[in-house]
Amino acid sequence: MRYLKTFLFTVSVLGLSLPTLADKETSSRIPQYPVSYDYPKATEIKNALDRVRDYYQSTSTRQIVDKRTGKAITDLSKANKFAIPSEGLANEWSYTHGVVLSAFVYIEQLTGDKNYVSNNVQFFDFVIASLPYFETQIETFGYKGKIPNWGRILNFHALDDCGSIGAALIKTYQGNKNEQYLPLIERINEHVSSNQFRLKDGTLARHRPQYESIWADDLYMSVPFLANMGAHTGESKYFDDAAKQILQMADRLYIPEKELFDHGWSVSSGDYDPRFYWARANGWTLMAMAELLELMPKDHPKREAILHLYRSLVRSLANLQDGTGFWHNLLDKPNTFTETSATAMFTFAIAKGINEGWINHVYGPVAVTGWNAINTRILESGAVDGTVEGTTFAHDNSYYFYRGRSIHATHGYGPVLYAGAEMIRLLNNEKLVVQKAVPGKQNSTHHFLLKSEWPAEKNK
């Protein structure tokens, strides 16, 4: 008591003021969100997508150049040992570029903006026109490795070499019907459907890092292509194979008690394979399921099983989302960094699920906060930051904890474009009414309501 009297006397003499209880309550009762909790606007999202597209396209020219000088080769009648496709994100033959090109098709379908798919046509036309030159180059110089920037485009070894970008090629063909694309589509199909290594039960697999390994990533490297082949040909065998890949990989990778996918699995470790719930692997899985669910027949016998996986994964992800709106690189370890590409994949898949009626509309705020988080990683230039670099199927926490991330990790661009497109669609979803959070209020959140569940006067 003596010390309290001394303290109060000192405060009085020095003219200091003590915070009142009311002051304390006022300063602490209003939420201070580290990332905006505001409800986004469709026009602002579209502007962000345009910036991403412009930046992505600005990184490349579509030329064949001499790698020693970087100068364009204009005489294509002669083989040049040093000829390569020009560098840049938008001139890669890669699975990450495939995601971007597929997103470009989707954005045009949703917005009518033809400035997106025109990039696809220019790229694929350039590839088709240039392949004979590189075939001659290889015949002339006996070069059998990768073509810089285009990898194994003439000799596929893995799903990474062709599946994702093959899906984008089919989608682009559906728009322009350029029959020159068809031989390349069929060559990709031959690899995915017939040549790629599979386990005895037909599950797509790899000979790395263990001799017989399954990667969750390969769901996106195969299923979108197979689903689009089904749509392209009308043949049910492609939908059947795509569904088989999801369900048979889930038998090894999906952990029911976690409602998450392990990054990988190997035959040699079997039931005791270590588990690492890498975010982007789960993102690839959800993106693949979304593609198949959209294209497969509604009465397909495996549809409900895939919907169950989709819904349960979304349920788990909603709980694992960080308070900033991001997800962590290892989903169940919040002391790993927040990562952009997976956050975009999950935001897309959740918004898509609501729009298609695959999941309940109550997940709307998860998508909103996911997009707000993504938007903080879209730089003014349009570059996308915070994306983890290419990541192998590993077996230790240290590896996943300390992966690099940057604007040069191209895995982030396609998912961000997809997420923005689907968010625009969600914001314009006429089946929903949204009670938006009011900034500065003590207790206010976003409530997504289904109009059909409420009396008409409540929807106003």
Descriptive labels:
Glycosyltransferase; 2 domains; mainly alpha; two-stranded antiparallel sheet; disordered N terminus; single chain; 460 residues; 7% strand; globular
Named CATH topology of the largest domain = Glycosyltransferase
> What count of helical segments does DSSP give?
15
Shape, per Cα inertia axes: globular
Number of individual domains: 2
Assembly state (oligomeric): single chain
**If you average the pLDDT, what whole number results?**
93
Helix content: 40-55%
Please identify the structural class as seen in this structure.
mainly alpha
Name given to the CATH architecture of the largest domain: Alpha/alpha barrel
Low-pLDDT segments: 1-18
Share in β-strands: 5-15%
Give an overview in words:
It is a single chain. The protein has 460 residues and is mainly alpha-helical. The chain has two domains: 38-429, Glycosyltransferase (Alpha/alpha barrel); 430-460, no CATH class. Helix content is 50%, strand content 7%. It contains 15 helices and twelve strands. A two-stranded antiparallel ribbon has the order 1-2. A hairpin with a 4-residue loop joins β4 (254-255) and β5. α4 runs parallel beside α6. The chain is globular. The model is unreliable at 1-18 (pLDDT under 50).
